[in-house]
User: Which sequence fits this backbone?
């Protein structure tokens, strides 16, 4: 009746609905029930958690957070309140991009590693790759450089674009951390970023030997993934 009071007389709508005018006005002035007040309080907490998560949390995570805060509400109730108030987690598109071999690479290096990812000397061989990470703000790209001797990250760069600058930043950071050692082997795949002119210039300037895996061989991404899973 409230939604249509500008279109139809209150008396006529009351008669159609089988209620009295006084009953309708009493309903409007009545205090919200305890259940309604509790729902309103929960919705406010749900909105706060949802906003804090950058709108990435759905009902399971929000319910878990509420339980951690001492709330005893059910997950079904949280899901219903979120649906009624149009609170939903942002859904990111499935991420598929990764490094791709350039159609016209500036330079392709020989494979100096030959899948032998072991060395007994620091700063003899570094392995690099670009991966991607899901964050609360969306997907970001991460260029990583590992020293094969220590198996530790010595260079890392993060950006929202997968450009040659991402690779250059990680390599420059590694050179700074290791005080620009000479005759390093820098191994990567044949992605367009690694076969670019800028990377070749930096490598020549710093005395770095570039190495690139052949198609079908264990590439740097697989090796880095194995190290992360089994350090």
Assistant:
């Amino acid at each position: 009746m409230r939604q249509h009071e500008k279109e139809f007389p209150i008396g006529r709508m009351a008669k159609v609905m089988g209620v009295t005018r006084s009953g309708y006005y009493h309903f409007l002035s009545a205090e919200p029930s305890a259940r309604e007040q509790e729902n309103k309080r929960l919705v406010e907490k749900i909105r706060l958690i949802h906003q804090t998560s950058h709108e990435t949390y759905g009902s399971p995570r929000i319910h878990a957070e509420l339980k951690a805060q001492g709330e005893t509400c059910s997950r079904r109730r949280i899901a219903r309140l979120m649906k009624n108030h149009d609170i939903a987690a942002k859904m990111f598109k499935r991420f598929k991009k990764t490094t791709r071999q350039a159609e016209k690479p500036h330079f392709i290096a020989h494979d100096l590693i030959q899948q032998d990812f072991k060395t007994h000397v620091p700063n003899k061989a570094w392995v690099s790759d670009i991966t991607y990470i899901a964050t609360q703000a969306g997907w970001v790209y991460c260029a990583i450089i590992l020293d094969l001797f220590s198996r530790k990250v010595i260079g890392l760069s993060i950006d929202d674009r997968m450009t040659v600058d991402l690779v250059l930043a990680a390599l420059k950071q590694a050179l700074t951390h290791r005080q620009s050692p000479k005759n390093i082997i820098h191994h990567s795949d044949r992605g367009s970023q690694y076969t670019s002119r800028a990377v070749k210039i930096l490598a020549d300037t710093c005395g770095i030997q570039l190495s690139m895996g052949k198609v079908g061989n264990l590439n740097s991404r697989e090796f880095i993934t194995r190290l992360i899973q089994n350090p």
Summary: The first strand starts at residue 125 and ends at 135. The two ends are 67 Å apart (CA to CA).
